[in-house]
Structure formats: structure tokens, C-alpha cells
Amino acid sequence: MSSVFSIGSGNNYSFLFNNSSSKTSGLSSSLSDYNLIKSGAYGKLMRSYYNKTEAGKSAAKTAQTQNANSSKTAYELAKEEADSTTSTSDSTSTKNITNSKSTASSLKKAANSVSSLDTSDKTETASAVEGFVNAYNSYISSADKVDDSSVLHKTMALTGSTGAAAKQLSSVGITVGSDNKLTLNKDTLAKASADDLNTFKSYASGVADTADKLESLSTNALSKKTNSLYNSYGSYSGLDYSTLFNSFG
């Protein structure tokens, strides 16, 4: 997981990137002119002045853009690139958390369906258990991409409780894999006793409660993503400690 660092208000590092001194401005201007001549932009500008062609107008626009870029400081160019990268990263992170929220909601629904089963109906039982296994696996796949600590801690609690119940789950045909995903053997499920199914229903009820908390934690994580995370001094301003403690509940 990524760590959060703070830079105090008294620290100003902008001077490290300042290239606007009189000693360097002349050199920067000369290099800019040289680049324009080398690229042929000046020649195109001259032709556009005399011929007034559309190509000449386009060349003028290109030259203006090149000149504008050449006047930017190293800090400004680096910041633009960093902002672009951060924007893409934030978009992916938000999408992943949104997906985990959706799959947590589906898992809660599937677990509630199992916990309220009439196990005497074998067809309904088989359908509900299969739906639960699919929903559980979908959530595990989505949670693997989430970068929020509270969601991940609660997910670890879910997989931990499932691992602890592996023996009971095997009695209804469910195997826990090394990747924390579930596999269903329908033949074993069809032969499961009423007691085994009732034990599974109790487990599913606990999963429904955990999935409900996961859905809520994902909602909080999305809220943090859409709000301002950092103040003007680079310090993290959106930390909600209550969600961290809730993730262990």
C-alpha cells in the first residue's frame, strides 16, 4: 500500500526548479530560436506571410505552440506530466473501488438468499448456493484491485472467516482455494445433510453482514477519492480514522 507523507507549510522547494534568472533567460531564448529554425517553423512562417496559405496559417499555430512550450520551466513541464499521470491513476482507482462496492452489494444479496433458504427445496438450494459462490468469487476478484486499506482489512477478515470454516463448507461441496476463491461440487451439495446445510446458512448470514460493511467501506473510500485529499502544503486532509477502526469490527 502506498504511504502518505506530509510537507510542512514552512518548506518551499520551488527555488530548486526556478530557471528564470537573467543568466539563463538569454540562453533559453537562443535555444528556442535555434529549435524553431532547425524545425523549419521560421521558414513556414515566412511563406505564410507572403502567400497567406492555409498551410502557412497551420505552421504559424505550430510555431506558437512550440514557442510556448519552450518558455515553460522544467518544474511546469514536470508538473503537467505528473498531473496527467495522477489523473489517470485516480480514475482507475475510483473505478476499482466502484466495482468492489457493486460486487459487495451482490455478495450481500446472494448471502441473504442462502441464509433464508428452505433447504427442503433441493433445486432452490442448489441455485442459491451456486449464486453465492459466484458472487463471492466476483467480490474477491474486484477487491484484489482496490487500494483502500479499510476495504482490504475487512476483505482479509472475510477470507479469514471463510478459511476457518473450510471444513464445514466442504460438507456442502464448497472448497476454498489457495487464491481464496470458492469451488462448488454440485454432487456433494445434493447429498448434504440438513444439519450441514443449516451450518452453511449460519456462515452465509455472517458473510451477508460482512458484505454490508464492505459496501459501506467502499462508499466511504469513494467519498475520499472525490473530495480534496491534500491541502495546499501537501498534507493529507481527508483521513477518516473511524473507517480504519470499523474495518476491524
Write the layout of secondary structure elements.
Elements: H1 22-39, H2 41-51, H3 54-70, H4 74-115, H5 122-143, H6 149-164, H7 166-170, E1 174-176, E2 182-184, H8 186-190, H9 194-226, H10 241-246
Antiparallel strand pairs: 1-2
What does this structure look like?
This protein has 249 residues and is mainly α. 70% of the residues lie in helices and 2% in strands. It has a two-stranded antiparallel ribbon. The radius of gyration is 30 Å and the shape is elongated. The model is unreliable at 1-25 and 228-239 (pLDDT under 50).
Q: Can you summarize this structure?
A:
With 249 residues, the protein is mainly alpha-helical. The chain has a two-stranded antiparallel ribbon with strand order 1-2.
